[in-house]
Amino acid sequence: xxxxxxxxFMCVNEREDKACCQDHGAAELRTYAKxxxxxxxxxGQGGVxxxxxGCLDRCDEGPVAVVYPDGVWYRYSNEADLDEIITKxxxxxxxxxxxKI
Length: 101
Ligand code: FES
Prior knowledge:
The protein is an alpha+beta fold.
């Protein structure tokens, strides 16, 4: 069994020359997701981990995040979208089709 059941990598990259995930508040939303998984008691060994990532090279689609080991990509817009990704995908393994890219 792997150390974490699922990893959520969230791009928080910021740049001036082109579109980036931080244009949409990605860093703040990543903090929200990390706090939420802690509040739900699902973070840590055997559970889930929310990590910040550098550019994932899907900048125009941002803000983007990817769940591993499933390899499912999402574009989210707000805390409600992250709540859905956390409670459905991270906790239950159910892909959130409406946010999938
Ligand atoms: S800035 Fe987020 S994917 Fe490139």
